[in-house]
Amino acid sequence: MRYELTQDLLTGNQLIDSEHRQLFDAINALLDACAQGAGRTKINETVQFLNSYVSKHFRDEEQLQLQSKYPGYNAHHTFHEGYKRELAAAANQIGAVEILKKNNVWIYGTDAAGTSYTDADFTGGTAFVIGSEGFGMSRLVGEKCDAMLSLPMRGKVNSLNASVAAGIFLYEAVRQRLAK
After folding, report:
1. What is the CA 87 to chain-centroid distance, rounded?
2. What is each CA distance from 142 to 55, 98, 145, 146, 164, in whole angstroms?
């Protein structure tokens, strides 16, 4: 799958259209890397690009909106600020995961489709990434995890509170280490 900057997506502004082409190129490069099995290494480069791109592109776009007295500027600016906060949070999480991995810590994400937590070995360096309730974790952070684990659910219960799930995973890690 590739993304294409089609004619209907062009704004007619040379600067903005050029920046949009850069974005499409970066996303397509990430998709190509994923198709070749190198997506995990390309993610950091793409997130770094997105951080600098978003800062410059949003500034350029907002400047043009102010110059042209664009009526939707305030809503657009609010959207941009929220997006920048989300991107920064994702970059920080990915960076933390990378630091842990470089220090021989095994990263376990949590997902209902993962393997049962009882099949995992938590006796070595272990970190758990617990997704937010109702939303899980970001796709980028999930892709950085070494494995995805689940808590088997029975009956009508299909998920647990994030802190309860974290407590179960941590208890299992302590139990395994004490039994070692």
Report:
1. 8
2. 25, 12, 5, 9, 20
CA-to-CA separations, 76 to 32, 62, 123, in angstroms, rounded: 31, 8, 49
pLDDT of residue 63: 94
| Rg (the chain; Cα; Å) | 21
Distances (CA, A) of 110 to 11, 40, 144, 160: 41, 18, 12, 11
Give the chain's mean pLDDT.
85
The reported pLDDT for the residue numbered 107 is 93
Nearest to 97 by CA among 109, 82, 87: 109
Which range (121-125, 137-141, 169-173) has the least confidence? 137-141
Count of other CB atoms within 10 angstroms of residue 97: 21
Please compute the mean of the pLDDT values over residues 153-160 and round it to a whole number: 74
Residues 65, 87 contacting (CB under 8 angstroms): no
> φ, ψ for residue 108 (rounded to 5)?
-110, 120
Indicate the pTM of the whole model. 0.56
E strand or H helix at 144, and its extent? helix 139-144
